[in-house]
Design goal:
4-stranded parallel beta sheet; secreted; alpha/beta; metal-binding; binds inosine; 9% strand; 574 residues
């Protein structure tokens, strides 16, 4: 504060005052420069066309954000006490520190209710709440557990392979050595209940905790940045084998899938594209033999989606489709085999498969340039079969700067990808940024995933704002919520992080990203030309996409009305 005494001193010293015309002139120029830069932002046009009610809702949400910024994130402690009790929280704090509190904020309540369009980047096997999955394993008759070697040492518990499996034969006998004993015969199936109750130090409760720890990335794993990305991927990769061994049994998959679709719908998501690596482990109910191919799984998947759409909670749900994925770590022969299966499944389930991708750790796996001959072969083979299966490549999910994983971005663009999964390193590529804007490629950004997998320590240092400020089209996704520790399915956590963590992302910024998710949804198969035309036209088009964009718009307006009514006290523009 400038007191009279200060002012006197300042005038004596010849210090210019803010009201002085030339300082005012400077500030005007400064504002103009900021405004000029803001015109290049991803949401500039959207922002200009906000309805009065939407503009009011945006103001209110920003007010609430500012309040919570100051009130929630210090936990009401003075700095010294906060420091001592490890309670120092700042807005945009690391996900696991923020999670408990964020779910109790007003901002959460708002974001949760927001209509969120499409979920475009999500690996299906990483989306089922682990507690629920385990409950299913326990309540489904015939579930067993086995391992290639006895599980004995702490190291075994942490890293050794084991799997669940259905078997119609009961393998229980009282003198059977436990899986936890030296005498365990490798790969013998032990009934789940027997294995759980004989779990050393704690029986079933401890067993559940242990399995859970093998299906998830624990908060402390994500904090250990000094161990690096490869180390967390080693943990991450191991979770999938355990999860899939439970999930890929028909009654369990059906129950989990139904519940998950319900959770997505409640979160305001109306369309999903699941990335799936279809391994051959799937078993029909009561069957000891795994299916020889993916047909049965796809049939059940479609059946469950159809059933869901007929329920009350699923009545607004448009569709769920699959982006077929091959593991990028495989050999040429294995990838070609997976591509052939993709083409064959597409023929049998034309509405189900909407695209193709390669997954697994980019830093450690094969680069796109290495796979170019296979990808050309795939395109040719598709054409011969009268199909057009577009690419939706993961690219640039890396800390690399100029290495092979970073350069995957060049190939993704050159190979005609419709969207880029992650694009974490894109912000370092000015030329590619221009190209993807020109070619209208969307970036599927997964901020919490990037944080947990140690690419960034919090939303504050994520490259998302660097893309948004340059006008790159982005939509937000949750990637692997059950493994990463979201604890809830849906997009609310990732949206909340962006909204609370980044000053430049407000409700309009989020809404723009939702609109993008609809615009870049692969609702129906289209040639490249049709796709480009429809993405280009956006809401002004005449097709399905434009109709759904209009529907979202009207939902968004209703949502804004709710914000304005519910949180009227936060409107500071009265
Ligand atoms: O963020 C990701 N980037 C690349 N691959 C991933 C990511 N999340 C999961 N997977 C891969 O997808 C398969 C499961 O569907 C797993 O093999 C996993 O490694």
């Amino acid at each position: 504060m400038t007191t009279d005494k200060n002012l006197e001193w300042e005038l004596e010293e010849g210090l210019p005052q803010v009201e002085d015309p030339f300082i005012q002139q400077y500030l005007k120029g400064r504002d103009a420069l900021i405004t000029e830069e803001q015109k290049r932002r991803h949401d500039a046009t959207f922002r200009r066309t906000l309805s009065p009610i939407a503009a009011q809702a945006c103001r209110i949400v920003s007010q609430i954000r500012a309040r919570e910024h100051n009130e929630v994130w210090t936990a009401g402690l003075d700095p010294a006490t906060a420091h001592q009790s490890d309670e120092i929280l700042y807005p945009g704090v690391m996900f696991h520190h923020a999670k408990g509190q964020m779910e109790n904020t007003k901002l959460w309540k708002i974001v949760e209710k927001m209509p969120k369009g499409s979920l475009l980047h999500a690996h299906i096997d990483a989306m089922f709440d682990i507690d629920f999955l385990l409950d299913q394993a326990f309540s489904t008759a015939g579930m067993h557990i086995a391992a290639p070697a006895p599980l004995i040492t702490p190291q075994d518990y942490e890293t050794a392979p084991f799997m669940f499996r259905f078997s119609s034969q009961s393998h229980s006998s009282s003198d059977q050595p436990a899986i936890w004993s030296e005498k365990y015969e490798p790969l013998t199936l032990i009934p789940l209940q027997t294995a759980a109750s004989s779990f050393p130090n704690g029986g079933e409760a401890a067993f559940r905790e242990w399995v859970k720890s093998r299906c998830m990335i624990m908060p402390e794993h994500s904090y250990h940045h000094h161990h690096g990305v490869d180390a967390i991927w080693a943990i991450f990769k191991r979770t999938f084998t355990v999860i899939n061994s439970i999930l890929m049994y028909e009654p369990i998959f059906r129950a989990c899938f139904r519940r998950m679709l319900g959770q997505l719908a409640v979160d305001g998501i109306r369309y999903v594209e699941f990335r799936i690596v279809l391994n051959p482990l799937y078993r029909r109910e009561g069957s000891d033999e795994a299916e020889p191919d993916r047909v049965e799984f796809c049939r059940v998947f479609e059946e469950e989606v159809e059933r869901f759409k007929e329920t009350e909670e699923g009545k607004n749900f448009y569709e769920a489709r699959i982006i077929w994925c091959s593991l990028r770590s495989l050999s040429n022969q294995e990838i070609v085999e997976s591509m052939k299966q993709c083409i064959s499944i597409k023929e049998q389930f034309p509405d189900l498969i909407c695209g193709y991708d390669l997954v697994g750790q980019e830093d450690a796996g094969r680069s796109l340039v290495d796979l170019v001959p296979l990808l050309f072969w795939f395109k040719k083979r598709c054409a011969e079969e009268g199909q057009d299966i577009p690419f939706f490549f993961h690219a640039g999910e890396t800390l690399g700067d100029g290495d092979a994983a970073d350069q995957n971005l060049f190939d993704a663009v050159l190979l005609g990808t419709r969207r880029i999964g992650h694009g974490f390193s894109l912000f370092k590529h000015p030329l590619l940024i221009d190209l993807i804007k020109e070619k209208k490629i969307l970036v599927e950004c997964c901020p919490i995933s990037n944080e947990i997998l140690r690419l960034t320590s919090s939303i504050k240092s994520h490259p998302l704002p660097a893309m948004l400020s340059r006008g790159v089209p982005v939509s937000l996704s949750n990637d692997d919520p059950a493994i990463l520790g979201h604890g809830k399915n849906g997009l609310t956590h990732d949206f909340w992080q962006a909204l609370q963590g980044l000053e430049n992302v407000d409700l309009a910024g989020l809404a723009m990203m939702v609109q993008n998710s609809i615009r870049w949804s692969c609702y129906e198969d289209q040639s490249t030309a049709e796709w480009k035309a429809e993405v280009g036209e956006g809401i002004l088009g005449e097709g399905l996409k434009a109709a759904r964009l209009r529907e979202w718009h009207s939902d968004f307006e209703k949502f804004c009305e709710w914000v304005v009514l519910e949180f009227a006290e936060f409107d500071d523009d009265e």
